[in-house]
Specification:
Elements (H helix, E strand, L loop, with lengths): L1 E8 L5 E7 L3 H12 L5 E5 L8 E7 L6 H12 L6 E10 L3 H10 L8 E3 L26 H12 L3 H14 L5 H10 L2 H4 L1 H4 L2 E3 L2 E3 L2 H11 L4 E6 L2 E5 L5 E5 L11 H10 L2
Antiparallel strand pairs: 1-2, 1-3, 2-5, 4-5, 4-6, 7-8, 9-10, 10-11
Protein backbone atom coordinates (compact mmCIF):
# COMPACT_ATOMS: atom_id res chain seq x y z
CA UNK A 1 0.00 0.00 0.00
CA UNK A 2 1.14 3.54 -0.77
CA UNK A 3 0.66 6.29 1.81
CA UNK A 4 0.39 9.77 0.30
CA UNK A 5 1.69 12.71 2.35
CA UNK A 6 1.01 16.24 1.14
CA UNK A 7 2.98 19.18 2.56
CA UNK A 8 2.25 22.86 1.93
CA UNK A 9 4.23 25.86 3.10
CA UNK A 10 2.08 28.69 4.48
CA UNK A 11 1.78 31.45 1.90
CA UNK A 12 2.60 29.19 -1.04
CA UNK A 13 0.15 27.58 -3.44
CA UNK A 14 2.14 24.59 -4.66
CA UNK A 15 2.10 21.38 -2.63
CA UNK A 16 4.85 18.83 -2.14
CA UNK A 17 3.66 15.24 -2.46
CA UNK A 18 5.42 12.22 -0.97
CA UNK A 19 4.36 8.68 -1.84
CA UNK A 20 5.58 6.13 0.71
CA UNK A 21 5.22 2.44 -0.09
CA UNK A 22 5.18 -0.45 2.36
CA UNK A 23 4.34 1.37 5.61
CA UNK A 24 1.25 2.04 7.72
CA UNK A 25 -0.59 5.35 8.02
CA UNK A 26 0.79 5.66 11.56
CA UNK A 27 4.34 5.38 10.23
CA UNK A 28 3.52 7.88 7.49
CA UNK A 29 2.34 10.31 10.20
CA UNK A 30 5.65 9.87 12.02
CA UNK A 31 7.61 10.68 8.85
CA UNK A 32 5.34 13.61 8.05
CA UNK A 33 5.96 15.16 11.46
CA UNK A 34 9.61 14.26 11.98
CA UNK A 35 11.01 14.37 8.45
CA UNK A 36 8.81 15.76 5.71
CA UNK A 37 7.34 18.93 7.21
CA UNK A 38 8.10 21.80 9.59
CA UNK A 39 5.53 22.63 12.28
CA UNK A 40 6.44 26.31 12.22
CA UNK A 41 5.40 27.13 8.66
CA UNK A 42 3.95 24.03 6.99
CA UNK A 43 0.76 21.98 7.06
CA UNK A 44 0.37 18.36 6.00
CA UNK A 45 -2.29 15.77 5.28
CA UNK A 46 -2.16 12.01 4.81
CA UNK A 47 -4.17 10.36 2.05
CA UNK A 48 -6.43 13.37 1.50
CA UNK A 49 -6.24 16.64 -0.46
CA UNK A 50 -4.59 19.64 1.12
CA UNK A 51 -5.97 22.36 -1.15
CA UNK A 52 -9.27 22.96 -2.88
CA UNK A 53 -8.97 24.17 -6.44
CA UNK A 54 -10.80 23.87 -9.73
CA UNK A 55 -7.94 21.81 -11.12
CA UNK A 56 -4.67 20.43 -9.78
CA UNK A 57 -1.74 19.45 -12.00
CA UNK A 58 0.83 17.09 -10.51
CA UNK A 59 4.39 17.01 -11.90
CA UNK A 60 6.74 14.10 -11.14
CA UNK A 61 9.95 12.62 -12.47
CA UNK A 62 9.43 10.06 -15.22
CA UNK A 63 9.76 6.40 -14.17
CA UNK A 64 13.44 5.46 -14.28
CA UNK A 65 14.69 9.03 -13.88
CA UNK A 66 16.68 9.45 -10.67
CA UNK A 67 14.87 11.51 -8.05
CA UNK A 68 17.62 13.06 -5.88
CA UNK A 69 15.29 13.23 -2.85
CA UNK A 70 14.58 9.50 -2.70
CA UNK A 71 17.87 8.25 -1.25
CA UNK A 72 17.80 10.88 1.49
CA UNK A 73 14.20 10.06 2.41
CA UNK A 74 14.90 6.31 2.50
CA UNK A 75 17.94 6.78 4.73
CA UNK A 76 16.30 9.28 7.07
CA UNK A 77 13.21 7.08 7.39
CA UNK A 78 15.41 4.10 8.31
CA UNK A 79 17.16 6.25 10.92
CA UNK A 80 13.71 6.88 12.42
CA UNK A 81 12.98 3.16 12.46
CA UNK A 82 10.63 3.18 9.45
CA UNK A 83 11.46 0.66 6.73
CA UNK A 84 10.17 1.98 3.43
CA UNK A 85 9.95 -0.38 0.48
CA UNK A 86 10.04 2.57 -1.90
CA UNK A 87 9.24 6.26 -2.04
CA UNK A 88 8.89 9.11 -4.50
CA UNK A 89 8.15 12.83 -4.48
CA UNK A 90 6.30 15.19 -6.79
CA UNK A 91 4.66 18.62 -6.80
CA UNK A 92 1.00 19.62 -7.14
CA UNK A 93 0.06 22.98 -8.68
CA UNK A 94 -3.51 24.19 -7.89
CA UNK A 95 -5.31 26.37 -10.48
CA UNK A 96 -8.66 28.15 -10.41
CA UNK A 97 -9.18 27.47 -14.11
CA UNK A 98 -10.14 24.39 -16.10
CA UNK A 99 -7.66 21.56 -16.42
CA UNK A 100 -7.23 22.37 -20.11
CA UNK A 101 -6.30 25.97 -19.30
CA UNK A 102 -4.08 24.85 -16.42
CA UNK A 103 -2.12 22.60 -18.77
CA UNK A 104 -1.59 25.54 -21.12
CA UNK A 105 -0.23 27.61 -18.23
CA UNK A 106 2.06 24.77 -17.13
CA UNK A 107 3.51 24.47 -20.62
CA UNK A 108 3.71 28.21 -21.35
CA UNK A 109 5.54 28.97 -18.10
CA UNK A 110 7.72 25.88 -18.48
CA UNK A 111 6.92 24.68 -14.99
CA UNK A 112 8.16 21.21 -15.86
CA UNK A 113 10.80 19.67 -18.10
CA UNK A 114 9.14 17.11 -20.43
CA UNK A 115 12.48 15.38 -21.04
CA UNK A 116 12.71 14.14 -17.45
CA UNK A 117 9.30 14.91 -15.93
CA UNK A 118 5.70 14.06 -16.70
CA UNK A 119 2.19 15.08 -15.70
CA UNK A 120 0.69 12.46 -13.36
CA UNK A 121 -2.65 11.34 -14.79
CA UNK A 122 -3.44 8.43 -12.46
CA UNK A 123 -2.30 7.04 -9.13
CA UNK A 124 0.49 4.44 -9.38
CA UNK A 125 -0.29 1.04 -7.89
CA UNK A 126 3.36 0.59 -6.95
CA UNK A 127 6.52 2.70 -7.05
CA UNK A 128 8.59 -0.21 -8.34
CA UNK A 129 9.39 0.07 -12.03
CA UNK A 130 8.06 -2.72 -14.17
CA UNK A 131 9.08 -3.57 -17.69
CA UNK A 132 10.44 -6.15 -20.06
CA UNK A 133 14.00 -6.50 -21.24
CA UNK A 134 14.52 -5.66 -24.88
CA UNK A 135 15.75 -8.26 -27.32
CA UNK A 136 19.48 -8.51 -27.95
CA UNK A 137 20.36 -7.79 -31.56
CA UNK A 138 23.32 -9.09 -33.53
CA UNK A 139 24.89 -6.36 -35.68
CA UNK A 140 26.47 -7.83 -38.87
CA UNK A 141 29.48 -5.55 -38.89
CA UNK A 142 32.12 -7.85 -40.42
CA UNK A 143 31.09 -7.39 -44.06
CA UNK A 144 30.03 -3.74 -44.02
CA UNK A 145 31.58 -1.26 -46.45
CA UNK A 146 33.15 1.98 -45.22
CA UNK A 147 29.97 3.87 -46.11
CA UNK A 148 27.84 1.33 -44.22
CA UNK A 149 30.17 1.50 -41.22
CA UNK A 150 29.75 5.27 -41.04
CA UNK A 151 25.98 4.97 -41.47
CA UNK A 152 25.97 2.62 -38.47
CA UNK A 153 28.14 5.04 -36.53
CA UNK A 154 25.93 8.05 -37.31
CA UNK A 155 22.88 6.10 -36.20
CA UNK A 156 23.99 5.67 -32.58
CA UNK A 157 27.74 5.16 -32.05
CA UNK A 158 29.31 8.45 -33.23
CA UNK A 159 32.78 7.04 -33.84
CA UNK A 160 35.06 7.94 -36.75
CA UNK A 161 35.94 5.62 -39.63
CA UNK A 162 39.28 4.49 -38.19
CA UNK A 163 37.57 3.49 -34.94
CA UNK A 164 34.78 1.69 -36.78
CA UNK A 165 37.30 -0.22 -38.93
CA UNK A 166 39.27 -1.19 -35.82
CA UNK A 167 36.10 -2.67 -34.32
CA UNK A 168 35.32 -4.41 -37.61
CA UNK A 169 38.80 -5.96 -37.84
CA UNK A 170 38.52 -7.29 -34.29
CA UNK A 171 35.24 -9.08 -34.97
CA UNK A 172 36.56 -10.38 -38.28
CA UNK A 173 39.49 -11.81 -36.34
CA UNK A 174 37.33 -13.61 -33.77
CA UNK A 175 34.88 -14.69 -36.51
CA UNK A 176 31.68 -13.42 -34.94
CA UNK A 177 29.47 -10.35 -35.11
CA UNK A 178 28.88 -8.16 -32.04
CA UNK A 179 25.67 -7.66 -30.14
CA UNK A 180 24.16 -4.19 -29.94
CA UNK A 181 25.27 -4.06 -26.29
CA UNK A 182 28.89 -4.79 -27.20
CA UNK A 183 28.90 -1.98 -29.76
CA UNK A 184 27.26 0.46 -27.32
CA UNK A 185 29.89 -0.40 -24.71
CA UNK A 186 32.74 0.24 -27.15
CA UNK A 187 31.16 3.48 -28.34
CA UNK A 188 30.74 4.69 -24.78
CA UNK A 189 34.29 3.74 -23.79
CA UNK A 190 35.76 5.45 -26.84
CA UNK A 191 33.49 8.49 -26.69
CA UNK A 192 34.77 12.02 -26.20
CA UNK A 193 32.87 12.03 -22.92
CA UNK A 194 34.80 9.09 -21.46
CA UNK A 195 38.08 8.99 -23.37
CA UNK A 196 38.73 12.77 -23.66
CA UNK A 197 40.17 12.25 -27.12
CA UNK A 198 40.52 15.95 -27.87
CA UNK A 199 42.50 16.64 -24.70
CA UNK A 200 44.70 13.57 -25.25
CA UNK A 201 45.30 14.01 -28.99
CA UNK A 202 48.56 15.37 -30.38
CA UNK A 203 48.29 18.85 -31.84
CA UNK A 204 49.75 20.18 -35.07
CA UNK A 205 50.44 23.92 -34.81
CA UNK A 206 52.04 25.75 -37.75
CA UNK A 207 53.11 22.40 -39.16
CA UNK A 208 54.77 21.28 -35.94
CA UNK A 209 53.52 18.37 -33.85
CA UNK A 210 53.07 19.20 -30.19
CA UNK A 211 52.20 17.14 -27.16
CA UNK A 212 48.52 16.70 -26.25
CA UNK A 213 46.89 19.66 -24.53
CA UNK A 214 46.30 17.72 -21.31
CA UNK A 215 49.96 16.65 -21.13
CA UNK A 216 51.12 20.23 -21.65
CA UNK A 217 48.73 21.60 -19.02
CA UNK A 218 49.84 18.95 -16.53
CA UNK A 219 53.56 19.60 -17.09
CA UNK A 220 53.21 23.36 -16.76
CA UNK A 221 50.95 23.20 -13.72
CA UNK A 222 53.29 20.87 -11.83
CA UNK A 223 56.15 23.34 -12.27
CA UNK A 224 54.29 25.59 -9.86
CA UNK A 225 53.89 23.00 -7.14
CA UNK A 226 54.14 25.17 -4.05
CA UNK A 227 51.50 24.04 -1.55
CA UNK A 228 50.32 21.25 -3.88
CA UNK A 229 49.87 17.95 -2.06
CA UNK A 230 48.30 16.05 -4.96
CA UNK A 231 47.25 16.96 -8.48
CA UNK A 232 45.85 15.18 -11.57
CA UNK A 233 44.93 12.07 -9.56
CA UNK A 234 41.32 10.78 -9.42
CA UNK A 235 40.05 14.02 -11.00
CA UNK A 236 40.86 15.86 -7.78
CA UNK A 237 43.48 18.18 -6.35
CA UNK A 238 44.72 18.68 -2.79
CA UNK A 239 46.29 21.94 -1.61
CA UNK A 240 48.24 22.39 1.61
CA UNK A 241 46.45 24.79 3.94
CA UNK A 242 47.92 25.26 7.43
CA UNK A 243 48.56 23.38 10.68
CA UNK A 244 48.31 20.00 8.98
CA UNK A 245 45.05 20.84 7.17
CA UNK A 246 44.52 20.53 3.42
CA UNK A 247 41.84 21.61 0.96
CA UNK A 248 40.54 19.02 -1.50
CA UNK A 249 38.87 20.16 -4.70
CA UNK A 250 37.02 17.78 -7.05
CA UNK A 251 35.52 18.80 -10.36
CA UNK A 252 32.61 17.02 -12.00
CA UNK A 253 32.94 17.19 -15.76
CA UNK A 254 30.02 15.02 -16.85
CA UNK A 255 27.64 16.59 -19.29
CA UNK A 256 24.15 15.79 -20.52
CA UNK A 257 23.24 16.25 -24.21
CA UNK A 258 23.20 20.04 -23.96
CA UNK A 259 21.78 20.55 -27.45
CA UNK A 260 18.44 19.07 -26.38
CA UNK A 261 18.72 19.62 -22.62
CA UNK A 262 20.67 22.83 -21.87
CA UNK A 263 19.62 23.04 -18.22
CA UNK A 264 20.47 19.43 -17.43
CA UNK A 265 23.71 19.71 -19.36
CA UNK A 266 24.79 22.65 -17.27
CA UNK A 267 23.66 21.01 -14.03
CA UNK A 268 25.74 17.88 -14.57
CA UNK A 269 28.73 20.09 -15.13
CA UNK A 270 28.30 21.98 -11.86
CA UNK A 271 26.51 19.51 -9.62
CA UNK A 272 27.37 16.04 -10.87
CA UNK A 273 25.11 13.31 -12.16
Amino acid sequence: MIQKVRVQTIGQSNIKVYRLEGISEKEAKLLAEKLLSEKINQNYTINRPLASARSIIEIAYKPGVMNPEVDSIMKAAADLGVKLKACDSSTEYPFNVSKKEALKIIQKQRIYNPLIEHIVEEEPQTLFIRGESGKTQIIPIRNLSEIQLMDLSKNKLFLNLDEMKTIQRYYQKIKKDPTDLELETLAQTWSEHCAHKTFKAKLVVDGKTKEPLFTRIKKEALKHNKNIVSAFVDNAGVMDFYDGWAINGKAETHNAPSAIEPYGGAMTGSGGV
